[in-house]
Amino acid sequence: PATGREWEHVGVTPDIEVPGDSALRVAHVDAVRRMANRADGVRRAELTAIRDELTAKDAAQTVPVATLRQYAGNYGGGGIVAERNGRLRYAARPALPWVNLVHLSNAEFVAAGTRYIFDMDNGVPRLLLAEPGREPVAYVRLRTEQR
Question: pTM for the whole thing?
């Protein structure tokens, strides 16, 4: 930058001032935010979900374990949801690996751009899978998680 000073020894004022140990994380979120602002349609939705996931990982909030256990179970074609160590995890099918879900609220979670939204349908948990660029699909829990 043209400051008229020798910045090599004094440094450069950052665009976003944060402690050094969080600079990379903050820069990552800011870069994804800027890319989302320039993107259209599906790509914008994907980047916005990624930004929300990165931001939520930094939040110190938690969802009560009783709430998480209420969502656990088999959702048929919607996959399997389980609570483990105070976190929700998801597997599309029994043979596939588990994905840790990042909470955005007590009923909304995200992982890899997909939103997992839970609500109750006549006392039975329902999972709404919302992938960018696709219509959301709802699944009713068929049975609870086996412990």
Answer: 0.69
